[in-house]
Design brief:
Blueprint: H1 4-10, H2 13-16, H3 22-33, H4 39-52, H5 56-66, E1 81-86, H6 97-106, E2 110-115, H7 125-131, H8 140-148, E3 153-156, H9 157-160, H10 162-169, H11 171-174, H12 179-184, E4 196-201, H13 204-217, E5 221-225, E6 241-245, E7 248-253, H14 272-283, H15 291-303, H16 316-327
Parallel strand pairs: 1-2, 1-4, 2-3, 4-5
Antiparallel strand pairs: 5-6, 6-7
Helix pairs in contact: 1-4, 3-5, 6-14, 7-14
Length: 333
């Protein structure tokens, strides 16, 4: 496939670059995900898209090409389901995505967390969940078994799509993110079309892009500014959370400049072990759920039609019983 005709449009620089029409973008991403570009062509396309900025038509085309090629998880269609992408990790503050995932699973939601296992200088969700005895699943059969036990399953991106995983891994060589990271936050890793996708943004242009994509696709999503790029409410200030459904957008949590109820006592360190112990203490009822995350959980349950839930704190013994069967598999679930 001749990549020049695509690069000529998207790679003309800040003043001359033009976004590709949807049908042309389909052709480019079909070639990309089928591995027809060599490494120089692929790198040029990824950097051109990053410098220009991805358009809605380009993202739509990329997802329309990628999603039929995804390996998807079969979940129980009769139960609510949530997809939590986790591709950033945290460097400055504790990564509390595993707490969000466990609270939702405790409320009866099927929770699929998908992402990378390791981050460059960051504490990933996978590492924290592993420290909690909830390591990454080896295959989809195991993921279904984990979810059926009322536990969130961490699915490595490599299981969903080796080609998408390859794009994301290029960050280590290129030094910057690429469209693979954008797509990973928008995909549905399950076969359930109504799975609620949680997505986050760090830059205003991605805020508009995500809203436009989900409004146009009429698929349910929960959108918010990320905490270090992760889709979990900040404990420092309450970010606005939008529920996009049926082509409409509804604000379910308004933004606040400071956290309601004051700042909670967080782990002293942001490493995986310290964060895992702190999360387990919250789940055991030894310390309160941070109010911003409690609000986020409530918003998700509202979107899923679960109007109220009685959260029974888990003692450490009960926690071991609930998650202990996952440890029997060894280092992974």
């Amino acid at each position: 496939m001749d990549a020049q005709r695509f690069i000529r449009e998207i790679g003309r620089g800040g003043e001359g670059a033009r976004s590709l029409p949807y049908n042309t973008a389909i052709q480019m991403f079909e070639s990309l995900f089928e591995g027809r570009f060599d490494q120089i062509e692929l790198g040029a396309i990824l950097m051109a898209l990053r410098m220009k900025g991805e358009s809605l038509d380009e993202v739509r085309a990329a997802l329309d090409v990628l999603e039929p090629r995804l390996n998807r998880l079969q979940v129980d269609a009769a139960r609510p389901c949530v997809s939590i992408p986790s591709y950033n990790g945290a460097r400055h503050t504790p990564n509390l995505v595993p707490l969000l995932a466990c609270l939702l699973a405790d409320a009866g939601v099927q929770v699929v967390v998908h992402g990378v296992s390791r981050g460059e200088g960051r504490t990933t969700t996978a590492e924290i969940m592993s420290a909690m005895g909830l390591g990454a699943v080896r295959d989809f059969g195991q993921a279904v078994d984990v979810i059926d036990r009322g536990v969130p399953a961490f699915v490595p991106v490599e299981l969903l799509s080796p080609s998408l995983a390859g794009l994301i891994a290029l960050r280590a060589r290129l030094g910057v993110r690429n469209i693979g990271h954008t797509l990973a936050k928008l995909i549905n890793p399950t076969l359930a079309p109504d799975c609620l996708r949680m997505a986050s943004f760090t830059h205003p242009e991605f805020n508009r892009l995500q809203h436009d994509y989900f409004t146009g696709s009429r698929r349910p999503a929960m959108l918010m500014r990320g905490t270090e790029g992760e889709v979990v409410a900040s404990t420092r200030r309450a970010a606005q959370i939008d529920w996009v459904h049926d082509g409409e957008c509804e604000v379910v949590v308004p933004s606040q400049t400071t956290a309601a109820g004051g700042l909670p006592a967080l782990p002293d360190a942001a490493d995986a072990s310290a964060t895992a112990r702190w999360i387990q203490s919250v789940l055991a009822g030894e310390r309160p759920v941070p109010q911003a995350i409690d609000q986020q959980v409530g918003a998700v349950l509202l979107a899923l039609g679960i109007r109220s839930v009685s959260h029974t704190p888990l003692s450490f013994d009960a926690f071991d019983q609930a998650f202990g069967s996952t440890k029997a598999h060894g280092a992974t679930i």
